[in-house]
Amino acid sequence: MAVGLKIPDNEAYTALTALERLGIPLARVERSAIYVFQAPAPEDELAARVTRNESVFNPNKHRLRVLDANAPRSGEVWIEEIGARWVDADRYVGWRLFGAGDRPVDRATLAAATELLLCNPAIERAHFPKTEEER
Amino acid sequence: MARRIAVLIFPGTNSETETLALLRDCGGEAELVHWSRAESLAAYDAYVLPGGFAYEDRIRAGAIPAHDPMMDYVIEGAQRGKLVLGICNGAQILLEAGLVPGTGAARRPTAAFTHNASRKFVCAHVYVKLATAPSRSPITAALAEGTLLPAWAAHGQGRLAASQMHLREIERGAHLAFVYARADGSIDPAATPNGSALGCAGLLNREGNVLAIMPHPERDAWNFNHPDRREGRNMLAVSGGAPLFASFVAGVQRS
After folding, report:
1. Which domains occur in chain B, in start order?
2. Is the pLDDT of residue A74 over 90?
3. What's the pLDDT at B234?
4. How many Å apart are CA A119 and CA A121, to the nearest integer?
5. pTM score > 0.90 for this model?
6. Does B163 lie at the interface with A, CB-CB under 8 angstroms?
């Protein structure tokens, strides 16, 4: 499950402007809180579990998206906090970067943005989309 | 000519007033510098990064301000030997900027002050003990060996975290400047309010001219700040947190 904002996301915009300053021009940045549930359960049950929790989901601000796969999409990196322990779901912050033509950025741009800003390797681990070979 | 100290204001800084007041009480010629005047920082001889929530802690505490144009001047100045002191959010910024512990390149952090072990905000009166020889840094040079400072911890992200390799570097390289201690000066893991690795409350860079400290000595700087407000005391007299600032100002004047 991915929880993103349907109102303007100031944090994503800050990331956009900071990355531009670091020499990575982007068209748009999307940010979402990712929950990957360990125990298998029907989709609507998992969605209800997230939307019932008022500390993570406010229907006036957030929209819920069911993940197609438990892995980042093209142009997206998931940031995991090393050593954090969560109950029943793994948590990540998902950053999806879009470049010219509103297309998801390539792997090299994503890796550069992650190294320069989005991930502090002392406390976080970055998960990238699988390459063709890895698939 | 007196050396000038800049107290930086990022969007979201909130401790600049007491930081400035204590620097001046300790004899420092200090001024506030707003983020819109970043280029003026080149003319200052030392920098203090106060506490707060710069850029709302977006992405990570300290991550965005570490790339603010003001930090271009701080990093360049630190590399040229200027003294830099970061407190609380200022400390988080210095770690994100890679200035402390300074075991990697600039803006390539090798450690962080991150979420407390409890994952709750801590607001508590604490004591920190000087864990290195005072002469290790011009910032601590005027303190006595093993100085115990009272301070207020006020943070949600004050736990030192790093890989085992970098924690070993911090220990071996004498980067550990202050550790949490009990009021009698004894070291006790229970005195660490946030689960910080090595009981760390403050870190120095290799050269000793950059200090990052999580709790706020400037919030226990006058007797009215101190939790033990005994009758008969002059409430406006300087209190236990002031010696670190006095030592910093003395170091700046000598530099």
Report:
1. 4-254 (3.40.50.880)
2. yes
3. 83
4. 6
5. yes
6. yes
Reported as a pLDDT band with limits 50, 70 and 90, residue A75 is very high
Q: What are phi and psi of A44, to 5 degrees?
A: -70, -30
The tokens of B47 are what? 């920098």
Q: How far apart are CA B185 and CA B187, in angstroms?
A: 6
Instruction: Give the pLDDT band of residue A92 (cuts 50, 70, 90).
Output: very high
Residue with tokens 């992650």: A114
Q: How far is B32 from chain A (nearest CA, A)?
A: 24
Dmax over CA atoms of chain B, in Å, equals 52
B60 touches chain A (CB under 8 A): yes
* Residue B63 sits at the chain A interface (C-beta within 8 Å): yes
CA distance A67 to chain B (A): 22
B4 touches chain A (CB under 8 A): no
- pLDDT(B12) > 70: yes
What the block records as the tokens of A116 is 């320069």
Q: Which residue of chain A is at minimal alpha-carbon distance from B107?
A: A116
Q: Which amino acid type is present at position A104?
A: P
Of the candidate ranges A107-116, B145-154, B221-230, the one whose mean pLDDT is the lowest: B221-230
Q: What is the pLDDT of residue A135?
A: 67
Task: Report which secondary-structure segment, H or E, holds B181.
Answer: strand B176-181
Question: Cα(B200)–Cα(B111) distance, rounded to whole angstroms?
Answer: 12
Q: Count residue pairs from A and B with Cβ separation < 8 A.
A: 46
Domains in chain A: boundaries = 2-127
Catalytic residues of B: 88, 216, 218
Interface probe, candidates B35, B53, B60, chain A, greatest A C-beta count within 10 A:
B60
Query: What is the token pair recorded at A110?
Result: 């994503």
Q: Is the dihedral of CA B165, B166, B170, B172 positive or negative?
A: positive
Q: Considering only CB atoms, which chain A residues are within 8 Å of B107?
A: 116
Q: Which of B179, B197, B193 is nearest to B118 (CA)?
A: B193
Kindly write down the DSSP assignment for every residue of chain A, as one continuous string: -EEEESS--HHHHHHHHHHHHTT---SEEEEEEEEEESS---HHHHHHHHHH-TTT--TTTEEEE--SSSS--TTEEEEEETT---SSEEEEEEEEEE-GGGPBPPHHHHHHHIIIII--TTTEEEE-PPPTTT-
Rounded to two decimals, the ipTM of the complex is: 0.92
